[in-house]
Write a structure and sequence with these properties.
Length: 237
């Protein structure tokens, strides 16, 4: 078949291409679905910042909430990237500038890289004059794509605070990283601190030999399971 769709017995009609009656309704469905996800993530990020300030594990809270059938809170994180989720809400706002909830969520998500760097400094101290590794140039794990990736605002904010910034991504060559404007980093090279930006499988378990000299890792995706002799700090905990 040209198009294959997952079986969805929960839907009111068979999964597939649905006729919504006119192009405007179809376009709104595209924007609404993606905008909903951005708003949901924005709410999760707001919860994460509050939990972090009050010594609460937001991930345990979200899991408990989502045990209820009508709760579907997404996961907080350092950034929302890609061609769709950061962009379609802006397209919706162009048509509906009075959508205050959509605008607030987009603004909240856009600030998460700065919040993440601030969180790193809360634990590590000032990054001025320090070498900081950003793990992951891609906008999400397992995808070789930097469109609207959180790596750009994260690197910019680290540099604004005086850090020397290097970037690692297992999916990109050194030349490709330089083409994006980054100084490449290789496992085994020394650094002072690290920020996980993309949840690549290679980052689930890290060791001191991967990141010699690094004492604090800000896990922007709550993804790292272990990092030998490195203090892991997550958003929302």
């Amino acid at each position: 078949a040209v198009l294959d769709f997952d079986e969805r017995p929960d839907l009111p009609r068979p999964n597939g291409v649905w006729n919504l009656g006119n192009p405007e309704a179809s376009e709104m469905a595209k924007l609404a679905e993606t905008t909903y996800r951005d708003v949901n993530i924005g709410l999760a990020n707001q919860f994460a910042l509050f939990a972090q300030q009050n010594d609460i594990d937001v991930y345990a809270v979200i899991d408990a909430c989502n045990s209820q059938p009508f709760s579907h809170i997404h996961r907080p994180g350092i950034a929302v990237g890609g061609h769709c989720i950061p962009i379609y809400p802006r397209m919706y706002l162009w048509n509906d500038p009075s959508a205050t909830v959509v605008r607030a969520a987009r603004e909240a998500n856009a600030q998460m890289p700065v919040h993440s760097v601030s969180r790193l400094e809360e634990v590590f101290g000032s990054v001025a004059g320090k070498k900081v590794v950003v793990l992951g140039a891609a906008y999400r794990g397992g995808v070789k794509e930097t469109a609207f990736s959180g790596v750009f605002p994260t690197v910019d904010d680290l540099k604004r605070r005086g850090a020397s910034v290097v970037v690692h991504d297992p999916m990109y060559t050194d030349d490709e990283l330089r083409h994006e404007g980054f100084e490449p980093f290789h496992f085994g090279e020394s650094a002072d601190a690290a920020i996980l930006q993309a949840d690549h499988a290679e980052y689930v378990h890290l060791t001191q030999s991967d990141l010699p000299g690094v004492t604090v890792l800000l896990d922007g995706r709550n993804y790292v399971k272990s990092a030998q002799d490195i203090k892991i700090v997550s958003l929302g905990k």
